[in-house]
Input
Amino acid sequence: MPRGYTQEKPPYRELRATFGEAEATVRTAEITLKSMIKWRIDFIDHVSEMEGLKTDPGKYDRFKALNINFQDDYKTGKKTLKELDDAINAFREVIIEHFINTPEYWELLYKVEYDKSFGGNETVAENYGYLFDPNELPPKAHQGLMISSFQLKLVKTRERGQQSWSHHLVFSGDHDFPLEGFLLRSLDGVILVKADRDSITVEEEISKEDMIQFEWEIPVSLKQLGQMIKESELTLRVHLLTVTHRVNLTKYREKMFRDYLIPDERKQMWERIIRTK
Output
């Protein structure tokens, strides 16, 4: 727990309270389940001893009582499960609201989505292409690394009737001026993927409220993906712009970059996406 925080202070107080509610509801559900199991066993044992439903009034009354008890516990169980869902959702919301960009936060939000169109084309893609921004510190000690406004998603598609999949990266986001490209680099500086603005064949850019919203699609091979997955530290280096300087009669061009980290969890997910048949 970060310095200055205790379980009695927000947001750990809310985290503890919502978890406590979920834990208490689970205990109630366990008690109800054990009760239902007991009534079921008693019910079966009792019916096995009855020669006919109404030949013995006493046994028939017991039969009806067991059935009522079981139904009452069943209703209680349904209500408890609804309360458990509500308690779990409240706990999740505390994490999403207060513990932004922690591993637990992304565990709740990050997933891979599968889609099959009416025409039979298939798509497997990440729902978030989040990137860690090592240039910025988290605003609060209990939050995780800041994330970039850019996203880089892995998508694989297969047309109807085809056996093989094609893979591409979707680089998207918004910026106050058009970007020039990006690189995916290994820890020792090896360029694994390079995309220049002028060479991108599938792109979409929209000017909105003085911002450029963009989405680029860059094909990648399985070999490139395999290299990226193996990297201990995979960096997305965004080429922001190129500045030209003039000193006397000589021109100098300086490229401006900004680096972002691909989280390890996402590389693991890329590997699972590749293996999906």
Remarks:
- The chain has a mean pLDDT of 86.
- Residues 112 and 127 are 6 Å apart (CA to CA).
- The first strand starts at residue 112 and ends at 116.
